[in-house]
Amino acid sequence: MPDLLAHVSAKRIVDWGADAVKILIYYTPFDDPKVNDIKHAFIERVGAECESNDIPFFLEFVGYDPKGGDEKGFEYAKVKPAIVTGSMVEFSKPQYKVDMLKVEVPVNAEYVEGSSVYKGQKAYTRQEALELFRKAADVATKPFIYLSAGVSNAQFIESLNMASESGTDYSGVLCGRATWKEGIPVFAKQGMKALEDWLGDTGVKNIDAVNQAIKSAKSWRGKVKAA
User: Fold this and answer.
1) Quick count: other Cβ atoms within 10 Å of Cβ 2?
2) 115-159 pLDDT per residue, tens
3) What pLDDT shows up at residue 3?
4) Taking the mean position of all CA atoms in its chain, how far away is CA 198?
C-alpha cells in the first residue's frame, strides 16, 4: 500500500476521470498521540489536495482497540460509542477539508437489549443506544453516511432502523459486504451458477431491505448549511 500511495495524488485521480477521492483509515482517539499525529497530518495533506483539485473528499474511518481487543466483542461494544463519536469530532474539523464522513454506527446492535439481533449480553438498552446515535450525529459538522463494517445484513438493517428511530440526520449508506458476503460460502460449496442464483434472489432482497431502511436519510445539504 505505501508503494501504491507514492504514485497516487488527487490530481492524478482527477486526470483518470474519477468523481471523488475516498480514503479508509483505521482510527481511534485513544491511541498513542504520536500515532494519531501521523494520521492527522496524512488526512490534512489529502484534504488539501482534494480542495486544490476541486474533487470531493470522502473519509472512512474504522475504529479499533489499540490493545488488540476484539472489535466484535462485548468489551469493545462498551467503548465503541466513544471511539466513533470522538472520531467524528476530530475529522469534522476544518483543517481536514473532508466533504463526506463515512462512519460506523456508534453501537453494536448485537449488544443492544431488545434488538432483533440481540445476543443476550447487554452493553446498552435500546433507549441508551438511540441516545448514542443522536450524540454521534450531533457532533458531526460534516455530512455523514453509514458503513456496514462487514456485519450481517440483518444486523446492518437493525442498526439503520435504530438510526431512523433516533432521528439522526445521516445522508445514506455506502455498504458492500453486508449485502453479499453470505453468498461467498454458496460460491465455495456450489460454484458460480449457485452464487448468481443467490445474488439474483437473496442478494436483491438484501439490497431492497437496505433501500427500505434508509428512507429516513436526510439530504447532505442540511449539514453543509449548518457547518
Assistant:
1) 5
2) 999 999 999 999 999 999 999 999 999 999 999 988 999 999 999
3) 58
4) 26
Contact 94, 101 (CB under 8 A): no
Domain count, the chain: 1
Q: Is the per-residue pLDDT at 50 higher than 80?
A: yes
Instruction: Give the position of cell 464522513.
Output: 101
Give the other-Cβ count within 10 Å of 159's Cβ.
29
Distances (CA, A) of 215 to 1, 116, 133, 167, 210: 37, 19, 17, 12, 9
- Which string of DSSP letters, residue by residue, matches 165-177? HHT-----B---H
So what's the pLDDT on residue 1?
A: 46
Beta strands in the chain, from DSSP E residues, in sequence order: 21-26, 57-62, 100-103, 144-146
Q: pTM for this one?
A: 0.91
Q: Within a domain: residue 213?
A: no
Distance CA(42)–CA(46), nearest Å, equals 6
Q: Does residue 40 sit within a domain?
A: yes
CATH code of the domain containing 68: 3.20.20.70
Residue the block writes with cell 448485537: 110
